[in-house]
Amino acid sequence: MHEEFIRCMPKVELHVHLEGSIRPETLLNLAERNGVVLPVSSIEELEEWYQFSDFAHFIEIYFSICDCIRTADDFELIAAEFLTHQSAQNIKYSEVIFTPYTHHEHVAFDEQLAAINRARESAETNLGVRMGLVPDISRQMRPVEDSFRVADWAAQNMGNGIIALGLGGPEIGNPPEIFQGAFERAREAGLPSLPHAGETGGPKSIWGAVNTLSAARIGHGVRCLEDPGLVSFLREKQILLDVSPTGNVCLGVCPTLAEHPLPKLIDQGLFVTINSDDPPMFNTTLTDEYLRIAKTFGFDITQIKQFVINGIHASLLSQNTKYVLENEFKIQFEDLESEFGL
After folding, report:
1. Is 199 a catalytic residue?
2. Residue ranges of domains in the chain
3. Would the pTM count as exceeding 0.90?
4. Which of 199, 226, 259, 334 is catalytic?
């Protein structure tokens, strides 16, 4: 009954990419209607294409996917499908990353946001699911001055769906310090910092994210274990790590799920959530992530519920909304435990 509990339980997700969530069949349709030539033409070929040799290969494919998004209607479609899929998993709230600069030559920033917001507002009304948006700066962005354009635009749209500023892309050769100015400007406007760090890069990348970008959370962060001083710092400050186990395996951060550092992170007293990152690209869902870690590491229902509650506590929702949501989730947990005899 643990499986049924996990499938039915309410959830939140704090680290998932909009572009990386596009359903395979939708991607093929977008490519066809926008005249984009992909190296694959079927779902089967697409699944084979999603076998990544390394992070650079993943980024290459990710940008090929982004190139298929050419209109505001495309943005509304992928956001609507994403939220429908979240609803089907009983994911009540998501904090969703997207990379507006990648698409600006085809769709202006404001048009991207308006399209996503149409889907967001519809899903909140009709499905009862919510999301906050985290536009991110790509570490590959050059000239670096363009990052200020993203930061300023994100800050101007606080309260219009945008809740934070992110930093994504290849860590190696692109330290967070490069973008310190853009993040300082965003923080001065009241926008929290949610950078990726410590996935393909080591502890130095995480230190940079917390010291120069004042990270409120760390996307991934699993390599913090290589630096005991960093582990102590993250534990003391309770800086949350948004962990995506299957994605880490797919990108070669660890060889197998059984060798994933998740149990060690927990043993060290670190604050952790579970996420799907780029679900179709990694052949996973948030529900699958919970099922896999429960089976692989023997986590019991109490531990699974704590991951979910961690997500509420670490979210960028208001304190009152967190309080209400946590109470609603606890009632639903109790009802499910009673239903399944747990």
Report:
1. yes
2. 2-340
3. yes
4. 199
